[in-house]
Amino acid sequence: MPLYKGEFNWYGESIILHRYATTAQRAWFFMTLHVSKTVKTSHSRVKYYFGGVKDNYTIKEVPKKIVEQQINNSYQIKEDFENVLPFTPRKWKKAPKDSKKNGPVKIFTKEEIEAYKRREI
Prior knowledge:
Helix content: 40-55%
Structural class: alpha+beta
Number of domains: 2
Distance between the termini: 47 Å
């Protein structure tokens, strides 16, 4: 499924959206649905406003090469981020609601983080 980029001008407010869809018409439908939720009005009103009478929106297909490049960059950022963190997000715990009752939140030192990486703790 191709990725489409839509730029909508809603009474002077610029809204830029990206959606995967089978055709440009389906992308237009999903994007106008999102615009209606964003501006808190009915979908039919938004469809009528962008009905083609005015030149107030554009929808273009994003080239596949750019999409693949963005996906590869996001995976690289994720890997770099995970290599920096000593703990995976699933192992993180929420801070206690009442710090006076449960004590202060533990802040790890560099030595403790390095020890955790070596699995000494």
